[in-house]
Each structure stands twice: as structure tokens, then as C-alpha cells.
Amino acid sequence: MYLSRLILNPRSRQVQKDLSDCQYLHCTILRAFPQIDKTPNLGARAQFGLLYRLEINNHTGEVVILVQSHTIPNWEALPKGYLAENLEAQNPACKPVAEVFKQLKTGMRLVFRLRANPTRKIETKSKASGQKSNGKRIELQKESEQIDWLKRKAKIGGFRLLSLKSETNLFNLDSQPIAKDIGWRGNNNELQKLTFGAVLFQGVLEITNTEVFQQTLCNGIGSGKSYGFGLLSIASANVAN
Asked: Is CATH 3.40.50.11270 the right assignment for the domain spanning 101-236?
């Protein structure tokens, strides 16, 4: 497992394009990974264990992407000028984190950060054949619903929340429909723009089940993982996040 940090060049036209459409950003990040193996019938994100989070510092304007993956990425494949240059920090930076994950134990307390897309499914009634309809996802708008959503994810994800604050005053991630097979269609059967509502959760958690929590770190939390949601970042609880 690898964790990368990319500091983007906000003057790059490709960066500006990617920030305006999360589908383009997803495609740009995939440049750093090999061609997918179509045999397992899994998408690229699942095959590479790809999770990422985009963060923009409102004070400095610095644009950072954290990327977690099973496969070591080749960031030299990014477009020329995509990354900021002449920085004191290494850019890009990439480090293995598998050993860190293995050292996690039940009862450990960790600072966490999660950009999530809290949703619930509706219209999931069973069909005449007995098969349950997949339904559709709707965003949870109320803070209480969003917090309850995270508590449910924590319970099945091997941890519990000790402290929590949430922020919804974030830029939402948008994507224009760029392919007919995506399935973004409204009542008039026309391709529609997708918007993902974002909530930033931060706080302190306690591991309740080590094995399950390690899987949660690898798999991410919630929907929209291909578009910058679900990456659970952790640090020692006695270290500032």
C-alpha cells in the first residue's frame, strides 16, 4: 500500500480543467497507473485500490491531492507542468504505508480526516421476480443525518468516534456527462451533470476491530470513491493532524 502527496500547479491549464470536473481529475490520476487487467471485470479504481482526496488551502491557494493505492504510481506520467515546482517539500512524495497499517491495534486512538459523500438509497423495493431493486442514491443534507451516517460506517468499519467535527462549506465536485454509457440520465432521458455533495469529517477515533479497520483503510468509506471521496487519513492521536 502506498500513499502519495501531490502539490499541483494552479496555473496549469490541465489542473484548472481537472478542478472543474472530477471525471477529468480521475482520468489524470489514472495516468500514473498501468493498463487495467480486464479479466477480473473490475474497474481501474478497484484494481489499483485507488483512493484520493483533493484539498485546497483557502488562505494560500495551495492545491494538494493525497493518493492511496495498492500499486506504486508513476507520477512522471502526469502532464508536463502539472505539479508545482521549486518547492522546499518533495513533490511528488510517495511512501509505503502497509507496515504502518499492520502495526495498528484494537484500542488505539487516532486522529482522522475523511472527505465523504454521505448518501442513502431510496426506491429499493423488491421486484415481482423477488430481486431487490438497486434504487438510487440521494445526499443526506442535515448535519445530524450526516453524523449518524458516519457512526453507522464506523460501527461496521472497526472503529468508534470519540470526537468529531464536520464541515460542509466546501466546494462540491462536479462532472459533466462525457460518455453515453455512464448512465447519468434524467426523466427526459437526457444526459445530466453530476454533482457530489462533500462533507469533511475530522476528529479522534478508537479502533474496535483491528482486522476490519485495516480493511476499511484499504477500501475507503462511502460512495463516490472514484471522484475523490472515501479516503480515511489517520495519525497518532498525540500528533497534530
From this structure: no
